[in-house]
């Protein structure tokens, strides 16, 4: 009787163990990532370069991760609003930030920044870099020398996406290198290009992504590109370096950030899937049209790049008188 009882007890334990083995462990389920929607928060309105790149990437990530990846536009305050949301978000891998060099510039041009642009974020990857900005206008000029001559005859205005934004930096550097004086007009809406086309403001330095279609449609003129090489989207538009301004180099970068303390394995997964997405024909097509080229750096490489850019912008913005502290 005692032996039969022991055998029955052992048999029950064995059946219970087999039943548990047939079920996925609760811990394994908890570690599955991603298992719900991932947000990519953009600091700019729809249809600008950051948004175009972000939406193309979201589509590819949705396919590879088999979870919805959506872009949420939170424009305003030169990107501070969007970055602030990321800095306060749960570091669980479900809230990403697609951003640009303004993220670093804000450390110097904003009087009170509610986060640290390096410490409060976890670098994922530098997605791409731009060929520069297009200097666009509807003024009765056809070249940069003509524009400079006109600017010396009468005061001109140029539209920017905010103080310290790359569009503002390009305008100030143009003034410094050419000796002209213009008035910056900050915008936080897509009306920027419309106002340039209608003459409300005289010119702007705009992303090649947004400028190229307008130029090709004959709605506006591109006089130059601010980067060191011509953009495939505007192959007939010279660079300012070609025109003799050899120390003129304003290019943009686009990258992904998580909140600080996001688990390293989740950062690595998004990095690897993003780098893979950049190699796809669809993403290459978007970047070609937008005047970008892919980078796909590792998290460590992107972290080093951000530190270097911090030092560079500290020097440049100081030279241009943009630093507020």
Measure the end-to-end span: 87 Å
On the 0 to 100 scale, the average pLDDT is 89
How many beta-strand runs?
11
Portion in helices? 40-55%
Question: Low-confidence stretches at least 5 residues in length (pLDDT < 50)?
Answer: 5-30
Q: What is the strand arrangement across the widest sheet?
A: 2-1-3-10-4-11
Shape: globular
State which percent range the strand residues make up. Answer: 15-25%
Describe what this molecule looks like in 3D.
- The strands form 2 sheets. This protein has a 6-stranded mixed beta sheet with strand order 2-1-3-10-4-11, with helices on both faces.
- It is globular and about 65 Å long.
- The chain is 45% helix and 19% strand.
- It is of the alpha/beta class and 325 residues long.
- The chain has 12 helices and 11 strands.
Helix and strand topology:
Elements: H1 2-22, H2 26-31, E1 38-42, H3 49-65, E2 69-73, H4 80-88, E3 95-100, H5 102-109, E4 121-130, E5 133-137, H6 144-153, E6 156-160, H7 166-178, E7 182-186, H8 191-198, E8 203-207, H9 208-216, E9 221-225, E10 253-259, H10 264-278, H11 281-290, E11 292-294, H12 299-319
Parallel strand pairs: 1-2, 1-3, 6-7, 6-8
Antiparallel strand pairs: 3-10, 4-10, 4-11, 5-8, 5-9
Helix pairs in contact: 3-10, 3-11, 5-12
């Amino acid at each position: 009787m005692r032996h039969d009882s022991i055998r029955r007890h052992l048999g029950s334990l064995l059946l219970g163990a087999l039943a548990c083995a047939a079920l996925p462990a609760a811990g394994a389920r908890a570690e599955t990532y991603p298992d719900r929607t991932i947000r990519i928060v953009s600091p700019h309105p729809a249809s600008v370069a950051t948004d175009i790149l972000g939406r193309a990437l979201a589509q590819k990530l949705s396919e590879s991760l088999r979870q919805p990846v959506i872009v949420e536009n939170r424009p305003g305050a030169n990107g501070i609003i969007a970055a602030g949301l990321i800095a306060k978000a749960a570091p669980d891998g479900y809230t990403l930030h697609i951003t640009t060099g303004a993220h670093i510039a804000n450390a110097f041009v904003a009087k009170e920044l509610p986060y640290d642009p390096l410490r409060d974020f976890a670098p994922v990857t530098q997605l791409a870099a731009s060929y520069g900005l297009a200097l666009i206008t509807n003024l009765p000029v056809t070249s940069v020398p003509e524009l400079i001559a006109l600017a010396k005859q009468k005061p001109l205005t140029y539209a920017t996406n905010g103080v310290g934004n790359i569009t503002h930096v390009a305008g100030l550097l143009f003034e410094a290198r050419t000796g002209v004086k213009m008035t910056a007009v900050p915008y936080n809406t897509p009306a920027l290009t419309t106002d340039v086309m209608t003459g409300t403001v005289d010119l702007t330095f705009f992303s090649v992504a947004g400028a190229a279609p307008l130029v090709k449609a004959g709605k506006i003129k591109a006089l130059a590109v601010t980067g060191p090489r011509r953009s495939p989207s505007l192959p007939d538009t010279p660079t300012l370096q070609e025109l003799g301004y050899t120390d003129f180099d304003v290019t943009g970068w686009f990258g992904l950030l998580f909140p600080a303390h996001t688990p390293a394995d989740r950062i690595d997964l998004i990095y690897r899937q993003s780098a893979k997405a950049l190699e796809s024909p669809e993403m290459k097509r978007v970047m070609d049209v937008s005047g970008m080229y892919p980078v796909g750096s590792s998290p460590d490489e992107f972290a080093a790049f951000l530190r270097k850019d911090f030092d560079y912008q500290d020097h440049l913005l100081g030279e241009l008188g943009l630093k507020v502290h």
